[in-house]
Design goal:
The complex is a heterodimer of chains A (515) and B (301).
Chain A: H1 2-28, H2 43-46, H3 49-57, H4 64-80, H5 83-88, H6 90-98, H7 116-130, H8 136-139, H9 141-171, H10 174-190, H11 202-214, H12 222-227, H13 229-238, E1 243-246, H14 256-260, H15 281-285, E2 292-295, H16 309-327, H17 332-335, H18 348-354, H19 360-364, E3 370-372, E4 385-387, H20 400-404, H21 415-418, E5 425-428, H22 434-438, H23 444-448, E6 456-465, E7 468-477, H24 487-491, E8 500-503, H25 508-514
Antiparallel strand pairs in A: 1-2, 3-4, 5-8, 6-7
Helix pairs in contact in A: 1-6, 4-13, 7-13, 7-16, 9-10, 9-11
Chain B: H1 5-20, E1 38-43, H2 47-57, E2 70-75, H3 91-103, E3 108-111, H4 119-125, H5 128-135, E4 140-142, E5 150-154, E6 163-167, H6 168-172, E7 175-179, E8 181-185, E9 189-191, H7 193-196, H8 212-222, E10 227-236, E11 249-250, E12 254-258, H9 261-271, H10 280-287, E13 299-300
The chains are: A mainly alpha (515), B alpha/beta (301).
Amino acid sequence: MIWRTFLPRLRATSQVICLLGILLLFLATDYRGEDHIPYPVSLLFRLDPLALVADLLAPGAFHWQLLWPAILLVIATGLFGRFFCGWICPMGALLDGCGVFRKKTAQPPLPRKWRRTKYYLLATTVAAAALGVQLFSLLDPLSLFLRSLTISLFPAFNWLMNRLFDGLYALDIGVITEGTDRAYPLIRENLMAFHQPHFQLSVLTFAIFAGILLLEKIERRFWCRNLCPLGALLGLCSSHGLVERVPTRICPDCLQCESDCRMNAVQSERNCRSECVQCMDCLEYCPYERTRFLGIKAKPALTNIDLSRRGLITSVALGAIFAPVAHTAPPVQRENQYLVRPPGAVAEDEFLRRCIRCGECLKVCIGNALQPALLEAGLLGLWSPIVVARHGYCEYHCTLCGQVCPTGAIRELPAETKIQTVIGLAVIDQKLCLPYARGTECLVCEEHCPTGKKAIVLESRNISAAGHTKRLKVPQVVPEQCIGCGICETRCPTQGISAIRVINEGETRHLNSQQ
Amino acid sequence: MISRRTFVKQCLATAVAAGTLPVIPVDLAAFPLNNSPPLAVRRGEDINRLVRQTIEALGGIDRFVKPGSTVVLKPNIGWDRRPEYAANTHPLVVKTLAELCLEARVQRVRIFDFTCNDPRRCYVNSGIRDAIRSLDNSRVRLEHINDRAWKEVAIENGRELTRWTFYRPALEADHFINIPIAKHHGLSRLTLGMKNIMGVIGDDRGRLHWNLAQALADINSVIQSDLTMIDATRILTANGPQGGNLEDVEHPNTLIASPDIVAADAYAATLFGFQPDQIESVVVGAERGLGTMDLEQVELV
């Protein structure tokens, strides 16, 4: 019957379309001549139930305006099962794509108890989040996917494209040069990054991503079966769903599902409904055409996840103890004065609990100023966005990071508010600053300072350098005007460390939270 | 910013420099220095008409561009500011000059600047992108800087700089029209035509400020402007060069144009109440033979 092949094909098509759609939205996560991005570029995370849980458990108001799609997804999963994993999830699609390269030799499935891992991970992270430490972001497959794309894969793609154009340009052949001269701006504006992105953590992020893909060698959808906490959450939601595959157990006369079910959800005593991602492959491969996906009366199916109470308690306890332990680490905000957050970021504690490390802000940052933190924001701040002003500055009139943040960790600021939002304060190091230290004229920081009333002014002073005293203009910071955008630090012509650096003094977000 | 290719380029540039330099037009004979260079100054509020009148006073655009040639227009688009803030050249000045070039049947008009803020934001918010788009003519292109097109050039008789990287399309243009905006500047008092050439050079531009006037004369000896039109329709009198405060903007509604960049800069200085000799880059420019700073010797047309 035609629908037996049609539905699996439809699913595969859906996976490809969703993946392409996500890539298109990813490319659209950029400045394209409009101050406002007209597309819902962070839609994927607004659909993310783990972001929903993180938001619910974080202090402050619940962002239902941002996260209502995730609520819809939870409801839909409750009704129809884990279709998100089979039809939509970009990580799932990618893993299925990697499956093409798998050897087709049948391997014995891993013991079923491995499956519990993801539920335990979920339990630990939820317990930790309830006590104020948000760890979902480390394991959320959507975050993993998009931040790998942002931090590692897209910059690498862009680098390769640039080398290609370098080569074409170097050929210096009339027709080709003319052609590339015309094509390059178009390709640059639509497919590539305008400036080559550079991210710290690019190698680490890629290594983790590659590791997840390599797990496919062990078994199909290893990540989804055993590790994915989002899959676990959706599995729990789906255990009472309306849709179930029949036959509800493996047929003793065939056993084909044992080797062909991508989630190994078809079992001898009863199918694991919470493991089935509704890929519908079994419609096609079933030699007897027995399989159907039917609306049936909900039955509790939690039992066949096979969780041990002991394991569950252990993992909850682990999270519940981990959180207070983590809270006792010294406050990084005070230890590291160079920890600068993007404008619109909420207070540090809430920020760490809301930010799901999706990398949307890193992607959209027009100056490549936002970088994923390694330890700059503490162990719990891994991958969270920090402003590294030596690398890039916060563009004065730009409000893009707040527009794309899917969880309200960075609030969207109106343009007039943005230019008054203090993210830090520039401080001059007179041992490095050229006029002070060497008696050389320099005004680069003053020239670039964007505030209407300059936050860096030049003042004439007698400077003694190398045995001579001369009258020279030297830069001075006016703290009341400085918003910490960091263009001075980016553009300072000293080698290595800038002679003017942004510290996190006077941040608006902490002034507000104290009121 | 500068790629690893710089190393290769350095090797090549040494070999090529001798062959390249004579190509750069050092056409001083066309505008004899002590022989009254023409200078046109016009006032008015209709910018399109103002540009046309000013160019007409100098004898028309045909005196500066030839049919079939490639012309570079170099406005100042350095900052992410809207036109009323007087940080960038007015979009209508750029657009009208492009129109004039088209009327002179040039083959191509290339417009670009190596901006200080993000180039995309500068091109959009300066109003220049939309102004050029409205021409809807494929012969006029507003281009972003192509990172590949840098070329190291030996600067003959350079005082501060003996070699520097320049933007190839600027070096290779048949005609170079310099369209700065007159602005206050924290270090050099004013930024005018000579300083605007910093927008077609590469490397670490901050280093130039260490001896700015000589460095400007050096780069202006490489990129010689066939015509300098200083936009003083609005000028920034404080907090330059990027401003951000409408209180610092004045409206002289003036355009100054001359084939002599030093004379144009010297005249523009007077709009701010300075004498030409108070602007170091003007003094050095005259000393270095780039033009006339004595406005008595200029032929006002």
